[in-house]
Amino acid sequence: MTQTFNVQQLVKAVLHGEKRAIAKTISIIENNEPQAQKIISQIYPRTGRAQIVGITGPPGAGKSTLIEKLVKELRNRGKTVGIVAVDPTSPFSGGAFLGDRVRMQDLSTDTGVYIRSMATRNHPGGLAKATKDAARVLDASGKDVVIVETVGAGQSEVEVVKVAQTILVVLAPGLGDDIQAIKAGQMEIGDIFVVNKSDRENANKAVSDVQAMLEMASEKKGWRPVVIKTSALTGEGIAELLERIDEHAEYLKTGPIDERRKEKIESELVEALTQKITESIVNEFKQKEQWNKITQSILSRETDPYSAADRLLAKQLKTTRKR
After folding, report:
1. pLDDT mean across residues, the chain
2. Alpha-carbon gap, residue 148 to 162, rounded angstroms
């Protein structure tokens, strides 16, 4: 569907924090519409001001309820908040399978809070491809804090480190989360570990287990990950958690954040180049008569997609060498 809108006017509205403009812009980015790159290019210079917090962890740990309490405390402190909640993809509509607005109804009427559910669209890292840009839109719109909540999908959760500055790993007693965290590599990416549902009787043991694992796994210098016990239902530990988030933000200002930014920029540049090169090559192939012949041969089971790709690339390389 062709969109008719003025990019400059849309960008201006986003920079003024208008919710409808933010929603439209994120939809354009998520659907990879032709004007998406132009919009990102125009808002990019106005980014880098928000504190971006990634929240990850297994299903059942209470991430969404914890976010609700965190946001309410942030609002009490006068800060505006943007939330990008990445959910599994619906097999029918292709959209977000779980509507986080349902789980955060109390926040949806707050003018200082913007909530957006995004589908992973089967992206293997548990994060939608457009998540980084959606966080940028919220940053440019003037939000003080942007929270990115990921799908609770185990080993793929580590990709949140590419988006956020401070990573919270949310666990809960009795779910076997300590083992799952080790498998997921979350012990390496977590800056703050939150043992939620602290009203459970084995909460203290869970805290001790996580601390013990951090001692075993931690060899890096600098920031030492901390473990906080919270109850998202009662609000216990929320104030202390925010203090630790602020402490980590202050720590990053002393130098390591520059190294992190460089790593993220290099990673993002590689991803962008890979995407552009792939699109360019595929578009070139599609314009050739051989493309239809090969797709027909795959349909008729005369060959498989991988062998067909080998043939296409071999022919392309042969043509390139002759030039």
Report:
1. 81
2. 11
Of 254, 277, 300, the position where a domain reaches its end is 254
Tell me the C-alpha distance between 67 and 147, whole Å: 8
| Residues making up the chain, counted from first to last | 323
pLDDT digits over 146-177, tens only?
999 986 654 445 677 788 999 998 888 876 54
Higher pLDDT, 250 or 96: 250
Q: State how far the Cα of 29 lies from the Cα of 42, in Å rounded to an integer.
A: 13
pTM of the model: 0.80
Amino acid identity, residue 290?
Q
Compare 191 and 91 and report the one with higher pLDDT. 191
CATH number at residue 171: 3.40.50.300
Helix intervals (H) in 194-237: 203-217
Structural domain that includes position 296:
265-322
Contact present, 62 and 172 (Cβ < 8 Å) = yes
- Are 214 and 228 contained in the same domain? yes
